[in-house]
Amino acid sequence: MSPLDGFTVVDLSTGIAGAYCTRLLSDGGAHVIKVEPPQGDPLRSWSASGSGEGGALFSFLAGGKHSVIGDPAEPELVENLLAGADAVVWSRGPAEQHAPERIRRDHPHLIVTAITPFGLDGPWSERAATEFTLQAWSGGVFGIGRGSPDLPPAFVGGQVGEYLAGAYASALTLACWYARGDGGAGELLDLSMLETAVLGLTYFPVTYFEMLGRPWRDARKLTVPGIASAKDGLVDVGCGTAQQWFDLCAMTGHPEWIDEDSPLSITQQANEKAEEIYAWVKEQTVQEIRELATAFRIPNAPVANGANVTGLDHFVDRRSFVTHPDGFTQPARPYRLDSAELRAPQSAPRLGEHTEHYRSSTLQARPAPGDEDRAEVLPFAGLRVVDLTTFWAGPSCTHPLAMLGADVIHVESARRPDGTRLIAGIPVSEPQWWERSPIFSALNTNKKGLTVDLQREAGRDVLRKLIATADVIVENFTPRVLEQIGLGFDTVRDLQPRAIMVRMPGFGLDGPWRDNPAFAYVIEAASGVSWLTGFPERNPYEPYSVGDPNAGVHALNAVLLALEHRRRTGQGLLVEAAMVDAALNIAAEQVIEYSAYGALLQRDGNRGPTAAPQNLYRTADIDEFGRLDSWVAIAIATDEQWTALGEALGRPDWAGDPGLATHAGRRKHHDLIDARLAQWCAERGGDEIVEALWPAGVPVAKAMQPHRQAELAQLQHRGFFEEVDHPVNPAVRHSTLPARPTQGPKRFHRRPAPLLGEHNQELLREVGFSDAEIAQLAADGVIGSAPG
């Protein structure tokens, strides 16, 4: 039985975000009915390369769904579908006559998930946007200092924002379904793609800036070595920690570079030695570098694209790609659930294939909900989660559970705390320096904190007692760690047969790369996400952001499927949610295009297949760092928007050229348009440009520095940032979840992230330790409240 058997979803969306949301639900066993306009969903003819008749991506996203033509002249057909469904996924488009507020009013049993650029209300709710302009507003085009100072900022290619929005929409829909249980009222989930971009493309820059008084980075800098040219191709080698930098120095034959007392950050030290490092890389083959880096425990990966990714040995060994019934290659599922069946790839429905079926055989209407008090719903109240995760990916899975009511216990070691506590740059001479990390704070509100040294038998005994009380255990170590300490799934199952264990290794539990360390950048390189990011004349850029939160939200989807499986069967199960499998799925279009049409998608700076023109243009503004480095994003996705742009510019002769009236014509003459727009923008400030173009219906955005996100009027209106008090740090703003539920919590952050070992006494007493035993554990260094 699939976890979502019997869960019926009506898909009233267009675009990748809604399609990917419902594809994830369909993979879990949901019955998805896609309502299309008479002319069909635009994705049916879409190809990013413009090859053939298109449609392969549609087949990937729509496989196994039913297709119904939603003719506006026959509204009762859609109404009947809604009456018999459990959830509906909506976005603006042909089905806009079925407004989400009206659907919720007329069908109060439904979970209505609305996916829009900015949300359903607020000052920007009706404004035009594309993923490109949303990346600009979010600060995602700057990322964590991504790029090179001699070139413009660069967006993350491949429409990754659409997939992130879809994954969040699926997870939050399932959270509502979990809360509803076997009955009860529905929900209106108002999801903002701007907010998913903030969470998926930036690294809590507002919290970082407000807590430490400085941005993460104030300039674009290449990561060194990052993606570099070897003798026979591209390889990605990274230094995410000081130890990895020291190991890189040794690996390249320069131990004299190691300076543990250097006042420079490891990024600055690496940049100083960039020329020598690149020269060394150029003299080695990709395989030689990867073997050396793996031996030194330095994160590394080949740089994948649509042509080579399916042949990489690790993916071959793990069967990471499968053949779609229509003949092209696609990634396998983004997670694996032992003993719970996920659907195999199926063909997409023909347009309107199931219309007659639903005309003659309507779904059984769902009962109206009762009148119980639903002033505030915390879906996961009563759910206990043992959180063994660290850094970014794992906490991105467990933090939404905590924000939605779960009792999440974050386990770390006083001897080796969560890595995010150590990356704030606070001198160890400062009091409680380990409590002053904005990243740790941003990822761990509402959790309890327990310190346990798992290298000691007494520590493992503590963890075993805690696991016996748990519903869910989540960890993101490399696979060998739990094996070495004897805490694998067999042990968990013996301790708590109903427990769900979620393992989030970078590259999976098996395969030749399984024990390789995995940071976001190597996951992005290995999956193809990096390949489409940057400029064609340069090596690709590492997005340095997407890999972790994308892994987290996909693991969250897997947790919710596992909880549904347990609700139906009473059984716990093992979930494998490898970071790279999640990344392969959001980069799926590359391998689909190559296998279906023989087209290798390429990076193209800030241009992209969905709009023309699409680019960043420098404005006359001097930025806050004193540089002429301020930009606006403009993206023309339709002919109507092109006409509106011409009107807003004052109808210049060049914009009226008939050769530019179509998308194909504008793409052909993109250089000419760029030159004209660059000249126009260079004479104006960003605010002036936005005010001239946006009210006219032109998708435009200021490219925001990430730490200025909280200044955006739309995010302020929606309360996306909440101020959080803290016993050591000043009260600063923290990002929340990207959807506002009508019945959900009025405030997501109810208490700050825990101090190191803050809840040791409380939790150890709860699982049966006496005060004397707890004191002995502290005296022996098994638990603690300070590093050491």
From TrEMBL:
The keyword Secreted does not apply. Its EC number is 2.8.3.-. Residues 348-372 are annotated as: Disordered. It holds the Pfam family CoA_transf_3. GO terms for molecular function: transferase activity. InterPro entries: CoA-transferase_III_domain, CoA-Trfase_fam_III, CoA-Trfase_III_dom3_sf, CoA-Trfase_III_dom_1_sf. It is an enzyme of class 2 (transferase). Keywords: Transferase. PANTHER family: SUCCINATE--HYDROXYMETHYLGLUTARATE COA-TRANSFERASE. This is CoA transferase.
